[in-house]
């Protein structure tokens, strides 16, 4: 039997459940939203039981998304604060894209790309929520004028496109950086992964400045 290996817990169970609730809500919102965006995409409403159901559940899923993302903000805002190291990391983006991390400055728990995704969604999700309220006919239709609703629809659509693009970047990066998805499914990363992708974070763990949990994996 091989000896147990020490791994680093990157995300605890609360982190992961919160993340996947947010992710599922976002995907459902994209599908239901696209079904109402253009007639060619109306077939997507069949996933929700038809057009009326897609229209009915879309805003309520948005409410759940907002609450869920607020949970992520509470848990992760500190480690997503921007530092000078992030600027240096961005300057070496060509090496990041080329997967040549030997020439990339070491970063902490999150790199500048991850912080960009976090703060972009922190901006876009409230914009989507509040613009969505203005066009939620059942509850707010009579309280908003047609011109206001038209502007809200435009803002909502543009914010949705931006959020989808950010989400695509997030998913692509998670798949591209090997074993990143495992951190959000099983919760842990290896010291080797941390050394390659988040060296300063590993050094903070070793020095006791980061309270990340270490555990044994068979």
Q: Quick one: CATH class?
A: Mainly Alpha
How many distinct domains? 1
Q: How is the largest sheet built, in terms of strand order?
A: 2-1-3
Distance between the termini: 9 Å
User: How many strand segments?
Assistant: 3
Report the radius of gyration as a whole number of Å. Answer: 20 Å
List the total number of helices: 10
Question: How would you spell out the order of helices and strands?
Answer: EHHHHHHHHEHHE
Task: Report what the structure shows.
The chain is mainly alpha-helical and 218 residues long. The protein has a single domain (5-217), classed as Transmembrane di-heme cytochromes, Chain C (Fumarate Reductase Cytochrome B subunit), CATH 1.20.950.20. The chain contains ten helices and three strands. The chain has helices at residues 13-37, 51-76, 84-91, 93-97, 112-134, 137-140, 146-176, 180-185, 191-197, 199-207; strands at residues 5-9, 188-189, 213-217. Strands 2-1-3 form a three-stranded antiparallel sheet. The longest helix has 31 residues, at 146-176. The model has no long low-confidence stretch (mean pLDDT 90).
Keywords:
elongated; single chain; mainly alpha; 3 strands; 218 residues; three-stranded antiparallel β-sheet; Fumarate Reductase Cytochrome B subunit
Topology:
Layout: E1 5-9, H1 13-37, H2 51-76, H3 84-91, H4 93-97, H5 112-134, H6 137-140, H7 146-176, H8 180-185, E2 188-189, H9 191-197, H10 199-207, E3 213-217
Antiparallel strand pairs: 1-2, 1-3
How would you summarize this macromolecular structure in one to three sentences?
This protein is mainly α and 218 residues long.
